[in-house]
Structure prediction request, 438 residues.
Amino acid sequence: MTESVNQGNSEAVPDARETERFNLLVLPHLNSAFNLARWLVRNRTDAEDVTQEAMLRAYRFFSGFHGTDARSWLLQIVRNTCFSWMEKNRPPEPVAEFNEELHMPNSVTPESLAIAGNNRERLSEALEALPPRFREVLVLRELEGCSYKEIAAITSMPIGTVMSALSRARTQLQVALVGSAQQEAPREL
Amino acid sequence: MSCNFPGATVHGYLDGELDAVRAAEFERHLEECPECVAALDAQESLRSSLQRANLYENTPLGLQQKILAAQRALAPAVPSSRRVFAQWLAIAAALILIAWSCWRIIPNLTGPNSQSAVAAQVVDAHLRSLEPGHLTDVLSTDQHTVKPWFDGKLDFAPPVQDFAADGFPLTGGRLDVVSGRTVAALVYARRKHFINVFIWPTRESDSYPLLGAQQGYNWMSWRKNGMAFWLVSDVSTSDLEDLQHLLSR
Prediction:
């Protein structure tokens, strides 16, 4: 699970100087870490525990960080910690399929979307109902503003897959949104 | 479907991830493909809904302190000859920590000014400052002009320094209002952008910096030597980190 995190590096508690460096370089990204965990595990209390666990994991493996992008490095650890935590604590969720192209029903128009998207609660529920792999790319792109390259690094997805994952995630979110707005029967996917 | 562009192309275009050639090709294609135009409209509508809904959730107050406490608990163990003493020390430390948590964390949780609420106010103050004529009350790149300007206007002396040599020239200062109190606002330029630095005294203990984003603006906040600092700008978070480093030097 932490293959690219502890690759070639053993776990070691950083000394005072390294701790200070960690706290100035990695700890400032606590909001990003928490926000990703919150949307993956889907509640604030569990997200707080998982974020703390991930942050300490990052701290112990800090000697393995040699890059410049501390946020991506941390978010990779956060998402791995979240997925392990969900495996242990949650029933399996629907798996995201990337293969075929999903066609948008005719009912999904910019107008129907604008109406459906106007409701924060509905939007939040529709996002939470997506498979976790889709939630994660959407949160990274739309809430964190990550580039495809960063998303690829965080999720260990090939960069070419990021675009198709986002495409499917957004389509599924739109279908769910308009569907819930029209109070129709569950969407057929 | 007559369209020969893969359906995901519209997403690459929307996200600004197509290279220039491919983007130009797709733009020409949009002129003759109503399906792709409709798909792009739908995606833009979804994006603006997501932005308006403001779904970003900031970390609970006190989590940074919990992580720092857990770091201290991981610190190397004391040699065994001193174990008994160390155990007593640990108990005493735990009691102090509990007392300190009650004093520190609980007021934070119940306090009216959550991180997000303050962030929203400083971002609003930043937006107001960008309206014509609102950025600075004292327009000067000279810290020796800006610093005395605050005298008598505030009940504290904000640290004023120019960082032109490091790429963050001081542009001026003004008074602003955050959480109902008058605060100092320093304005630094970064290339063609402005960074507002809001400063006010606080009784809370020092903290490490925390980054966040609100309404498309990046912010960074920390407390040091009895002062709360909030940086807000549309520059990158790494620029904010550089300025944070300079201000804390």
